[in-house]
Amino acid sequence: MIADTLEELVFTGDFSDGDRLDEIRLARQFNVSRTPIREALQRLVASGLAVQIPRRGVFIRQPGLVELMEMFETMAEIEGVCGRLAAHRISEEALADLDTANARCTEAIAADDADGYYRENERFHHMIYRHAGNGFLEQEALRLHRRLKPFRRMQLRLRGRMAQSMAEHEAVVAALRAGEAERAAEVLRGHVAIQGEKFHLLMASLRRAAE
Amino acid sequence: MIADTLEELVFTGDFSDGDRLDEIRLARQFNVSRTPIREALQRLVASGLAVQIPRRGVFIRQPGLVELMEMFETMAEIEGVCGRLAAHRISEEALADLDTANARCTEAIAADDADGYYRENERFHHMIYRHAGNGFLEQEALRLHRRLKPFRRMQLRLRGRMAQSMAEHEAVVAALRAGEAERAAEVLRGHVAIQGEKFHLLMASLRRAAE
DNA sequence: TGGGAAAATCTTGTATACAAAAATCTTGAC
DNA sequence: GTCAAGATTTTTGTATACAAGATTTTCCCA
């Protein structure tokens, strides 16, 4: 529970890169002893959100731009794999569910409801992972998806990105429905890879604005 | 350090599925207090080798056959991805290194040196991960590779498997050298997928022998 | 004799105390 | 005034004590 709260704090940017997570201070903050804090910190380290330097403490570690791009590329490849497998394994009902999610996405765009859009978008991707028909792969995909969540949301703010994303979703469903595995893989891979590129773009423009 | 030892014990089969890892007993065994044992157990849980049930303890959790097959399939897909990326990104020197590793593998087969074969085989795969040119993907590949290690070794015992595996390795290098990304991906995927199938075969025959 | 409730025991989870290592501060010499 | 060595403080890592929940045992009654 404490680990989740700390994770939230890292994601929401309350901690910045290189900050030391002081056990005693956190213990006071959460009104517990150091022991549960240490367990929470170990979880953060295990999930890659922090690094532990022996006898020095644990430091939060925000991924740099290059690492983020690597993570987006990996996510794109994994989604591609899920798409290729799903093309062979997905059921008719599941395809209908994907259509439903997409319809709700379109509604959300019309209503200018970014949160709603994001929620249904997430459902869409989770369904693809699920219907790859490989529970282990699904878990790995979910893990990485979750890790990239705060960064993925940012690029959705770009003008016209939501509509573009929707079109890509529909191409994915079309390929899956046709059972065209390689096309499904390629479309999904591109759909995620472009998120990484858009994110990169966003960061570059932000950096330029800061100067 | 204790976590590594425990991991070893799990891999070498000193613990079987569902065993409870008694903190007090382990503490006595390692001559330390419960605190470091608890930290080690948390690591095992984080790496998926054990599950923790609150107020009940942590239990070791060997993956069942279906999960293992899922893991092999995932590994095959990830290696395929590494191969596809590496086909575009690998250097001439690295290709030469792959050849060297393969040559050593052949020698090891001639000398009937299973350990040596396995060591060079591992180097081969690690190099492919490395030259996919994506540090994050590399780490993920290494993680899964490591997790599957004890099971991968088993299938190498099958008669003729080492020679077959070697031929596949050479096909991989040929595709990489030609820069044929899709072929490299397919060959590598097949190379790992067949390991899963062989492993399945082995388990089935072992089960039949037990009856 | 079987079933169930209560007590005893065991085990996890948390707090705290202590040891060792790292970081910081102080003091002295040049 | 600056640098370095030693002392002090801070901080992590480990041991131990205690609390709360889970399990087992025991005992009573039908």
From TrEMBL, chains A, B:
<keyword id="KW-0804">Transcription</keyword>
<dbReference type="InterPro" id="IPR011711">
    <property type="entry name" value="GntR_C"/>
</dbReference>
<feature type="domain" description="HTH gntR-type">
    <location>
        <begin position="1"/>
        <end position="63"/>
    </location>
</feature>
<keyword id="KW-0238">DNA-binding</keyword>
<dbReference type="GO" id="GO:0003677">
    <property type="term" value="F:DNA binding"/>
</dbReference>
<protein>
    <submittedName>
        <fullName>Transcriptional regulator, GntR family</fullName>
    </submittedName>
</protein>
<keyword id="KW-0805">Transcription regulation</keyword>
<dbReference type="InterPro" id="IPR000524">
    <property type="entry name" value="Tscrpt_reg_HTH_GntR"/>
</dbReference>
<dbReference type="InterPro" id="IPR036388">
    <property type="entry name" value="WH-like_DNA-bd_sf"/>
</dbReference>
<dbReference type="InterPro" id="IPR036390">
    <property type="entry name" value="WH_DNA-bd_sf"/>
</dbReference>
<dbReference type="Pfam" id="PF00392">
    <property type="entry name" value="GntR"/>
</dbReference>
<dbReference type="InterPro" id="IPR008920">
    <property type="entry name" value="TF_FadR/GntR_C"/>
</dbReference>
<dbReference type="Pfam" id="PF07729">
    <property type="entry name" value="FCD"/>
</dbReference>
<dbReference type="GO" id="GO:0003700">
    <property type="term" value="F:DNA-binding transcription factor activity"/>
</dbReference>
